[in-house]
Design a protein that fits this description.
heterodimer; A: 240 residues; alpha/beta; Rossmann fold; 6-stranded mixed β-sheet; two-stranded antiparallel ribbon; 31% helix; globular; B: 265 residues; mainly alpha; MetI-like fold
Chain lengths: 240, 265
């Protein structure tokens, strides 16, 4: 269980197109990740959320600095289709604690599917494998790039609940990126609102909702309870 | 975790439908057409002399085994084709990492290789026949190079090498660049490379038959050459039908094996 706060140091990035024209994609993005909490980057599409996540994970093309063990789950969950569930979890690990492996598989709800292959599985199935693999690697931070945003609401609730469990029971902090306000409210302990272009942090919100309410699909959240009129006016045209 | 711009090398792979699980079957329409051919040319339209009668074809097929020593030739040709495919696959599997690394690190190498695409394999068959006359080893070498070049071409033809997500995950899990080549990229490419194996097998038959036809001393190509010299059209046709059946059966086996071993897409 990671108990220390992780400071994300200021991130900036430029993009140069083929004609040589350079634009500032985002600047001075920095924040704190509290242990055992979900922090959501809420921003419109095309803001550079994925790039921010890659930079935080240390896997961006220009990342040179060594970061701690941070596992990134990309937009399309990327469990390797040539490996079984069990093999995916043990991938690239020299020593495998079989007991812990079974527990992790059970934790994400894949019990009974240990020898199945993700090849023809649903997005949800593949996401569970990716999440299990991330947890099994014992990371200091998991970064998730909109991986479940496209799922139907009922299915999403299951995964919100699962991700909340990862933070509360395993203590692993998560950074989730989304362009959906309702998703951000249901999932997060903290929302970091990012505007474009160049993308910068507009505000940070702490979300205090009990766990049952978060995953109750009958409850709709009112955006004005969480965001100021100014924030809504800035973002309402850009965020669904 | 120091990372280079690996992702730039590997963008999303095109999602073609592979159909590697689809078995080769003789369709009902083929059986129907064969039946029509037998009935029409054996029993109804017996006076025509353009299309050979089925019974004559059958007789000539039987005589291929006795007069042309087809059994021996068949073993000679298959002793080139099947080992060549197996050896080429083993070479490709062993050196896949190196091939990919070279291809990705020195992308300009594709430009060096490109002109050779326009050298017909006929030229190489002629050259090898000229240099190593009647050498089975030279023929095997020719066949191995043919298969490797065809399979590598399918790697070249991939617009991109692997799903971005696989690369990102692998990087995130701490894999080295070399491991990403050998494990993630190669595994991602494999279904698309091996889906062409049946096509390569078919092309290899043509290439080897031409090689043997030029040399005129070993294999079924030499039988072709002999039948051609004797103006034995019936033998040429029945040999063609026989070879097409062999290709069909072997392709079914290849498809079955590939779908079992490379089950992912």
């Amino acid at each position: 269980m990671s108990l220390k706060t992780i400071n994300i140091e200021p991130l900036s990035k430029n993009y140069t197109d083929l004609s040589g024209y350079t634009i500032r994609l985002f600047e001075n993005i920095y924040f704190e990740i509290e242990p055992g909490k979900i922090t959501t980057l809420l921003a419109p599409k095309g803001t550079g959320k994925s790039t921010i996540l890659k930079m935080i994970a240390g896997i961006d093309e220009n990342s040179k600095k060594s970061v701690g063990k941070r596992i990134c789950i990309p937009t399309k969950p990327s469990s390797f289709p040539w490996l079984s569930v069990r093999e995916n979890l043990a991938f690239n690990l020299k020593k495998v604690d079989d007991d812990n492996l079974e527990k992790t598989i059970k934790f994400v709800g894949l019990e009974g599917y240990e020898d199945h292959f993700p090849n023809n599985g649903s997005v949800g199935f593949r996401f569970r494998i990716s999440l299990a693999r991330a947890i099994f690697n014992n990371p200091e931070l998991i970064l998730i790039d909109e991986s479940i945003s496209t799922l139907p609401l009922k299915r999403k609730m299951e995964f919100y609940s699962l991700l909340r469990k990862v933070t509360t029971e395993k203590g692993i902090p998560i950074i989730y990126s989304t362009s959906l306000v309702s998703e951000a409210i249901r999932l997060s302990d903290k929302i970091i609102l990012i505007d474009q272009l160049p993308s910068k942090i507009v505000s940070e919100k702490t979300i205090l909702i009990d766990e049952e309410t978060r995953v109750d699909d009958k409850i709709a959240f009112n955006i004005s309870d969480y965001f100021t009129e100014e924030e809504i006016s800035i973002l309402s045209n850009r965020i669904i | 975790m120091a990372n280079n711009n690996l992702y730039n090398y590997f963008a999303c792979m095109s999602n073609n439908n592979l159909n590697i699980n689809q078995p080769v079957i003789i369709s009902k329409i083929t059986i129907f057409l064969i039946s029509i051919y037998i009935v029409l040319f054996e029993f109804i339209w017996v006076t025509q002399s353009i299309i050979p009668k089925p019974s004559l074809l059958f007789d000539s097929f039987i005589s291929l085994w006795s007069d042309y020593n087809l059994l021996n030739a068949f073993f000679e040709t298959t002793a080139v084709i099947f080992p060549a495919i197996l050896i080429a696959i083993v070479v490709l599997e062993i050196f896949a990492k190196l091939f990919l690394k070279t291809l990705i690190d020195y992308s300009g190498i594709i430009n060096i290789v490109t002109p050779f695409k326009y050298f017909s394999f006929f030229f190489f068959a002629l050259l090898l026949n000229f240099v190593f006359q009647e050498s089975l080893l030279a023929e095997i070498l020719f066949a191995i190079l043919f298969v490797i070049s065809k399979l590598l071409t399918s790697v070249f033809n991939e617009k991109n090498f692997a799903e971005e997500e696989y690369i990102l995950s692998a990087q995130s899990l701490g894999l080295s660049k070399s491991q990403i080549y050998s494990i993630v990229v190669w595994k991602s490419l494999k279904p698309n490379v091996y889906k062409n194996l049946t096509k390569v097998h078919m092309q290899l038959w043509v290439a080897v038959l031409i090689y043997e036809f030029i040399g005129a001393s070993i294999g079924m190509g030499a039988v072709y050459r002999l039948a051609y010299n004797y103006n034995d059209v019936l033998s040429l046709i029945s040999l063609g039908i026989f070879i097409s059946f062999v290709i069909l059966i072997v392709n079914s086996i290849i498809k079955m094996v590939v779908s079992k071993l490379i089950f992912w897409k």
